[in-house]
Amino acid sequence: MTQVSFYTGVPDRLAYCCRLLRKAQQSGARVGILAPAAMLDRLDAALWSFEATEFVPHMRWQPNKPELMAATPLLLAERAEQLRGWPVLLNLGPEMPDPIEAFDRILEVLSRDPEQVQLGRQRFKRYKELGHQLDHHEVKD
Question: Where are the domains of the chain?
């Protein structure tokens, strides 16, 4: 079963994701990030600029650069199948990744936006129905 961690009530989703990904990268974790293209664009830009004295190594999925993708700790992609083989998935998309079992752990980061909260509740319920291990972290200001 996949371990699924929900982080809810996040006031600034992009900044929180940057800090979470920096921490993961510093611990040696390899994380695939799944999101629509517009969100990936914003996250890519934020990872370059959120901390003036640090660089968080990452790249967008590129089919012609398999060696470089294998060497990066954070890979940004629009489709879950592009992230097969990555142990951890940060899901920033509106839907559950498919297949869920391709990942050891899935992170779901949700802001306070009502639509995002509703979609997150639906995913939480579905993960639970499928028997995955769930934990929930409410983010305080």
Answer: 3-138
